[in-house]
Amino acid sequence: MSTPETTERLHGLDALRGGALLLGVVLHASLSFFPQQTWIVADDSRSIGAAWLFYGIHLFRMTAFFLIAGLFAHMMLARRGWFGFLKDRVVRIAGPLVVFWLPVMAGIITALAWNAHVQGWVTPGAPPPPSPTYDWTNFPLTHLWFLYVLMIFYAAMLIVRLPFAVLDRGGAWGRAVDRLTGLLTGPWTPFILAAPLAYALWLDPKWIAFFAVPTPDAGLVPHTASLVGFGLAFGFGFLLDRRRDLLDRIGAGSPLFLITAVAAGVVAYGLAGGPNLTPMVEPTQEKAVAAVAMAVAVYGSAFAAMGLSLKLLSGRSVVRRYLADASYWVYIVHLPLVMLAQVWVQDWPAPWWFKLIGVSLGVLGVCLVSYELMVRHGFLGRWLNGRSIPRKPKARSQAAE
Description:
- By secondary structure, this protein is an all-alpha fold.
- Helices cover 69% and strands 0% of the residues.
- It has helices spanning 11-30, 48-118, 145-167, 172-184, 189-203, 224-242, 246-252, 254-272, 285-312, 318-345, 352-375, 379-385, 396-399.
- Helix 5 runs antiparallel to helix 9 and helix 7 packs across helix 9 (285-312).
- The longest helix has 71 residues, at 48-118.
């Protein structure tokens, strides 16, 4: 049944959305510890364990995020209408992308320059290397790409929904879509959604299998595989909010989703050759098998994360709510700080896991302190989270004087 009027807060999904963003700190911190250099900063201590950690997080993180983003988009659209929805998204999604891109990029360039000096790549007195040139094909969206892609999905959602809103006054089409959503939801869901994604990955001559769904962090036209992979998750989440009853089915099926994700993920990792950065160029049979395994693992892990969050994190928690509120700010500002910390510790005589924990917790601590002091209780909090939390009021006895 369709339930667009439901406004109950889904604490488990709120926690998962926040957790997906916070895990970005660990994900990016792990890059400098890969066995082979995949990142501008290469630590002296490296291990395959860092690649395993990255792979496990990257497999589900952004797909789960877009799945939840689609569900919350339908919830907000039902509550505010299309104009209120569009206004909110422009202010809270497009606005931060425009405002924070330049300082974030400046921080990244600062980290790159420091690393170049540390590594001895800069010769004193030598002319600086030519500045890179950018156009619409390689524009560096950085880690803020998800805001750009969200705006694309919001626009597509409103366009696709328009004929239904205009022509389906009696709700017959909507009821048919709801029935279809019910039929698609079950242990078979990852396999159904995997088919179009696997096909898109198979056709992509630049696909690096280890990185699963390509990250569209450069260029104003995202990869087809990115639009398919994340777009299907967003669209399915949008439909799920019309059928809130199906969330119980997803929660109950989380063990099967998890088994599917682990099995397919292990197979996909082997077929990818581990942290192999060589693209699978030709659409061969081997690439087709790898694409199918990876696509099943991506959606299986995303639905496992959703189901487990619904089962285990649905209660109210002050700590989880705080971290969920802070996660947006943390994710926006974390990457330059991670890179600076990686440059700082890369020569330390310590094991990789110790430095990874230190970089992750240190950056997270700095971001949370700045959130509490600069964001949560003021204008930035209202802008990013839709509300600001007042500080504890002074004793009422003082007000009575």
